[in-house]
């Protein structure tokens, strides 16, 4: 069952709530918390979020201002690890292409 099905929504809302709680705590948006967490994980991780609105682009750029202490990262990681995400992550067409390289020209 796809992750974004209605049946999976109630269980997956725990992750949304976690991001909302941290957003309030850090004076940021949930999207900024998500991106800041990715940026804090490893220096070579470069998230590339898509957007179709200038306001979302500016919000995404604002994630660079969000900082986590080591203790905060451990707390956030532990809280996230306690949440069970329901449903398959990739949609079937994407899953079928996982690990498949593009043909060379």
TrEMBL record:
Pfam families: Aldo_ket_red
Keyword Repressor included in the entry's annotation: no
Coiled-coil stretches: none
InterPro entries from the UniProt entry: Aldo-Keto_reductase, NAD(P)_OxRdtase_dom_sf, NADP_OxRdtase_dom
GO cellular component, one term: cytoplasm
Highest taxon in the source lineage: Bacteria
Domain NADP-dependent oxidoreductase: 3-79
Gene Ontology MF, one: oxidoreductase activity
Keyword set, alphabetical order: Oxidoreductase
PANTHER family per record: AFLATOXIN B1 ALDEHYDE REDUCTASE, ALDO-KETO REDUCTASE
Protein name per its UniProtKB record: Aldo/keto reductase
Source organism: Streptomyces europaeiscabiei
